[in-house]
Write a structure and sequence with these properties.
The chain is mainly beta. It is 8% helix and 39% strand. The protein contains two helices and 16 strands. The strands form four sheets. Strands 1-2-3-4 form a four-stranded antiparallel beta sheet, with no helix packed on it. The longest helix has 12 residues. The chain is globular, with a radius of gyration of 18 Å.
């Protein structure tokens, strides 16, 4: 109702700035790849500018840390950055991990599934390791799928205990190890639409 509504203008955003938001310990963290980042106390509706949080394209909460990928900086396309444990407002200088930086491809998606943190590129899927402690030297990753990846992080959805997302060949079903294409029935239609419409169509398809 109007009496329970609260409006706070926090910034002017570029038209192409996709926003993200994550709730953790009664605080809402929001930001984007080309926008300011904010920490909002949802109990008192206090809004704080969080300049320590990097500009990142996609984020997740994992192991009490705010994790983000595709950082808006030089060579940041393959970078995974993360906060201190229990403190999403604080990103230490050494809290990061590059995922296959030398291949020149950007990270396109991030998701938590069955207790693991996965990240994707357009044609690859990786599972991270060593992020459960406070020692960045232990951080690492393994590539588990080659030739199939996620094109648009916005399409990643968990349904019926499986992960779904859009790859170059259509809609994929992922069980933590392998991908199975599930969109053969609409393949002709998918090939006849543009990239922007494809993204919109598949986001709708995956949120049934």
């Amino acid at each position: 109702t109007a009496s329970n509504s609260y409006i706070q203008k926090i910034s002017t955003l570029p038209a192409n700035s996709a926003m993200w938001g994550k709730l953790y310990n009664n605080r809402l963290y929001i930001g984007g790849y080309s926008s300011d980042r904010y920490s909002i106390d949802v109990d008192n509706v206090d809004v704080y500018l969080s300049t320590d949080i990097p500009k990142m394209r996609y984020v997740e909460i994992y192991l009490d840390k705010l994790m983000g990928i595709n950082v808006n900086e030089t060579l940041g396309g393959s970078k995974l950055a993360y906060s201190d444990v229990g403190n999403p407002d604080n990103f230490a200088d050494n809290n990061y991990l590059y995922i296959d930086k030398d291949d020149g491809e950007e990270l396109t998606g991030i998701f938590v599934y069955k207790g693991n943190l996965y990240v994707t590129k357009a044609d690859k899927i990786y599972v991270t390791v060593g992020l459960d402690d406070e020692y960045p030297s232990n951080d690492g990753y393994y590539q588990i799928v080659d030739g199939i990846g996620c094109l648009f992080g916005e399409t990643i959805q968990e349904r019926r205990g499986l992960i779904y997302f859009v790859s170059r060949r259509g809609v994929e079903e992922f069980n933590g190890n392998f991908c199975t294409i599930v969109s053969r029935a609409i393949e002709t239609e998918l090939k006849n639409v543009g990239q922007i419409k494809l993204r919109q169509l598949l986001i709708y398809y995956l949120t049934w």
